Task: structure prediction
Amino acid sequence: MADSAAKIQQLKALLQEAADLGSVNSVLGWDQQTYMPVEGNAARSRQSALIGRLQHERNTDPAIGHLLDELTPYAESLPYDHDDASLIRATRRAYEQNIKVPSQFMGGMYEHMGITYDLWTRARPANDFSMVRDALAKTLDLSRQLANYFPGYAHIADPLIDFSDTGMTTEKVRTIFGKLRAQLVPLVAAIAERPAIDDSFLRQHYPQADQMRLGVSIITDYGFDFGRGRQDLTHHPFMTRFSSGDVRITTRFDEYDVRDGLFSTLHETGHALYELGIDPRYDGSPLGGGTSSGVHESQSRMWENIVGRSLPFWTHYYPQIQSTFPKQLGNVPLDAFYRAINKVNPSLIRVDADEVTYNLHVMIRFNLEVELLEGTLSIDDLPEVWRARYTSDLGITPSDDKDGILQDVHWYGGIIGGQFQGYTLGNLISAQIYEAALQAHPEITREVGAGKFSTLLNWLRQNVHQHGSKFLADELIERVTGSPLQVEPLMRYLNGKFGGIYGL
Ligand code: ZN
Result:
């Protein structure tokens, strides 16, 4: 026992060093996407690749493997949710994954990602897919190689999906997406029959500084702790964690659309509240982060949409946004504003999509990734197939690649595979978890209507956040809601809310 305690300490010390290298890389990445001048890109990509390779070397140190072997009998003597048992289990999973991939390969891949990201930042404004075509082809090649370090999969996308949503497979995602799609498409069609909602007043001039002030005021009410975090400007908003005492969010503002900055601020804050709520004792170990991209996205989408686009929320905050923008909104009634921010309108841009059509954007991307990896779709056909899928699934055709194939950073700053399913899984999980929260505390709705969020946040901390990666997504959902992941809670939420707004 005493021997086990000493070995746990040794293991934690090794893991802390690897995690610190990861945090160092996160600082480099955060800086690259916020303040770094563009000419710094090449050197920064090289530096990030070096740190990434060093981190991978630390994570695959045979000493970790030996300690895990020695600690296994101890872990087996403990309850499943014991901190040490969970640490050993999560470290074993990460270690087995890491040792399958050579450090040299990881280093080369990180460097390639940096180069591709840099190309993409120029290709998108130039609306020129050919500038990144070769790099993307290489990314596909590397993504396939990466998957093939994990032989025995049922589908080549499975190992890559497993990286971000452990336990998920191509088959499982297809089944869930198929069920969801069957119910979403009729809802989109029914809404399309109804008169369009006027949202023109949201597209007046809204000065950035006022938008920023409003956002900061709301996320302070949410519980974002500026003593343990910062908010900065970026082109593509994200959240990143350096430690339990330092979680960064980033945002961007469109001075001619008040939705953009506000809802992306609420979204990234949802991610940050998750990371800030993780038990600080898990810092520097595989337990010290959100458990999957789906669960992470469930938290961001909950605070952005289920809370932040609800009528009770705006009943409280509308006077505040009206007094911030009296010229723009002074004569707009609350109901018109609420309907406008929830307008359903098939569009080209995923991150700006309404709650109903959003998942159709995700499904397009998920299917394309799978087909690219399978080899049933080629990189050269990708821009055209993207346009064709938008035409058939959303009824609109991108007029250029900028808002088509070049739109999302994911394939240009990472691998191809496992990048998108988490967004829709997150929507499903958020609705299911929120139902459970309301069941436990029906007063949450009333509190949101008074600008108070502590009952919801404390319940989430207690049931979801504090655990970090102690439980896999499936285990967590089952523990928190009493059932496995389901499509029905999201459809109940969407049908209820948008049935009301559109009078269906
Ligand atoms: Zn997100």
Observations:
- The first strand starts at residue 229 and ends at 233.
- DSSP finds 22 helices and three strands in the chain.
